[in-house]
TrEMBL record:
This is Predicted oxidoreductase. Residues 32-289 form the NADP-dependent oxidoreductase domain. It comes from the Bacteria. Pfam families: Aldo_ket_red. It comes from Sphingomonas rubra. GO terms for cellular component: cytosol. InterPro entries: AKR_Detox_Biosynth, NAD(P)_OxRdtase_dom_sf, NADP_OxRdtase_dom. The lineage of its organism: Bacteria, Pseudomonadati, Pseudomonadota, Alphaproteobacteria, Sphingomonadales. Transmembrane segments: none annotated.
Length: 311
């Protein structure tokens, strides 16, 4: 009898595309974004280098917010204002990106999505950015004291005036997203939840299901678990990191690339918002497209995060 060796075929999950469409807006964005929560300082040349590094790495979706500043010891709007100074110095950079910002948080209030406030917030963002339009405008957090019809009216008015192109929401539940969508004249094209291997709620609370149903892009903030995947301090984080490090060695990339690739492997195609402010690390963002995940490997990470086997 001849020797027959059984060959096992490894089946990998589908790799993410490098770019995705934002609904029917005509906008196309990279499947990894660069975020500006920690975009700070007075050095415009250094800030420009960071923006150029992101664009050179193939990142075309840049995400900021009017509230970015106080967490860095700077004034409200500081991150937008710094980016505006970059645009003033290098106007051509603006046309190389899809610019996203957020509004609806008011210092000390904390939330205000009233029509009057949103109109003022959008104009203020445009002024700080030195732009005529915002490509993607997110309501940063839901204002429980404003009817979604009023929020929709403010956003529709801004869109009709050419101030914003597309509409998204951040930190909204699926029900809150659906309520706002019911009153808008155009679809919501993106949602922005926290999602990482250590923050997995969108897998189970209906958010990813809604995103796939409505063809909304998912922008995942804090994809490194708020730094816990970079510096694990508890058993749960260390267990996940051990799996990530094994995968990193196999793929020849660093742990961050593995964390981003795990996020992107989900069929909702979450877009990790990379927050590094180091140009060298920004340049390594494309490494996240290298790893390939089997179904068993992906679920093993999820089970490590949950601390129990799935039923």
């Amino acid at each position: 009898m001849p020797n027959r060796q059984h060959k096992t075929t490894v089946s990998y999950l589908k790799s993410p595309d490098r770019s995705v469409a934002l609904g029917d807006t005509g906008l196309t964005v990279s499947s990894i974004a660069w975020g500006m929560w920690r975009f700070a300082g007075e050095d415009v040349s250094a800030a420009r280098m960071l923006v150029e590094a992101a664009l050179d790495a193939g990142v075309t979706l840049l995400d900021t917010a009017d509230i970015y500043g106080p967490d860095n010891g700077e004034p409200f709007g500081a991150a937008e204002a710094l980016l505006g100074r970059v645009f003033a110095e290098s106007p051509a950079l603006r046309d190389r990106m899809v610019l996203a910002t957020k509004g609806g948080i008011s210092m000390g209030v904390p939330y205000d999505s009233s029509a009057t406030y949103l109109a003022e917030a959008i104009d203020a963002s445009l002024g700080r950015l030195g732009c005529e339009r915002i490509d993607l405008y997110h309501i940063h957090r839901p204002d429980l004291l404003t009817h979604p019809q009023e929020v929709a009216r403010a956003l529709d008015d801004a869109r009709a005036a050419g101030k914003i192109v597309a509409i998204g929401v951040s930190n909204h539940t699926p029900a809150q997203t659906a309520a706002l969508a019911a009153f808008l004249t155009v679809p919501i094209v993106s949602i922005q939840p926290e999602f990482s291997a250590l923050a997995t709620a969108p897998l189970f609370d209906g958010l990813f299901d809604q995103a796939m149903e409505r063809r909304m892009a998912v922008l995942a903030w804090s994809p490194l678990g708020g730094g816990r995947l970079a510096d694990p301090q508890d058993e749960r984080s260390r267990t996940v990191v051990a799996l990530f490090d094994a995968k990193a060695e196999e793929a020849g990339v660093d742990r961050s690339a593995i964390a981003y690739s795990w996020i992107m492997a989900h069929p909702a195609r979450p877009i990790p918002i990379v927050g590094t402010q180091n140009p060298c690390r920004v340049a390594k963002i494309p490494d996240a497209y290298t790893p390939r995940w089997t179904r068993a490997e992906w679920y093993a990470v999820l089970e490590a995060s949950l601390g129990e086997k799935l039923p």
